[in-house]
Task: structure prediction
Amino acid sequence: MNFFKKKRKVDEEHKEDTKEIQPASKKSRLVSIVKSVGENIRSKVTVALNALTGRSYTHRIPSALFTTPAGPLRSARYVMTPLDHFSVKKAALKWRKNPYYLYDSVIPVTESKQHEFKTGGGKYPINILPKHVQKYGCAFLNSDGGVLMAGILDNGRVCGIFCPDRMRREVVNSIDKEFSYFLPKVPSNFYRIEFVPVYERSKAVQLKDLFVLELTVSSGHEDEIYETGEHKVFIRREGSIQGPLNPLQIKDIVLSKYKKKIERRRIEKLQEVNETETDVDTEKKKNTNKVTSPKRSLNKEVIIVSP
Result:
């Protein structure tokens, strides 16, 4: 019995000691937790400001906002879209001022409705380019036109494609051949093939047989729908290709073109009516403004002299 009493006393004393010590440990833990949370919030706020005010979001900024399950401080593995708004001047077909590209530089345009970038590595000019001519050439003709640029990465960085003289002739022949299969016929002045040389960025020396292939395609006739030699129809959306279209989609395009044509004719007739009305009004004003001057009667006086 005495053994159990002694054990109870020891347990009670131990509980009292832990009660006295426990609040102090809780306070210290709470202070440390508050400090650590405050530092995390501060870092998150700074990262948020850097991400929102900066032009891009790279791996150098720790990813506190864009976290992954692996951990809150994992670095970002991607690049955010630049804050530069899309401008019509940059989207124009003739945006390039210099007759060359600089290797590993970033061009001032992004992929859009008028621009399509392709890396073009390996045997792209011979094996893959003809299929892209069918797809993107048809889409540009059925839309507002555009440029297919081979030798440009998706982020706009210039890498170029290796294309010696013999291969360039084969590329031109294959592009002409693919466009010759289109229906209706595509005139040669509707597209332009250009091999733009690539220069080294530091020494400003042209790199041998390294080019950026630019295939510029203008928009086709408004009353036509162009199809490839395989009877496939494509159209260009914002930065993407839609197609091959099914018959119902082609029917919708035909109806929209027909409605636009009717609206255009209606506007032309209204303009003609307005022009005829203005011509009639001007003639009436001229007739009313004419002032008829009164005829003057010349009375000659005859003087008779008597002898």
Summary: The chain has a mean pLDDT of 74. The helical segments are 2-53, 88-91, 124-141, 165-180, 247-289. Residues 12 and 277 are 111 Å apart (CA to CA). DSSP finds five helices and eight strands in the chain.
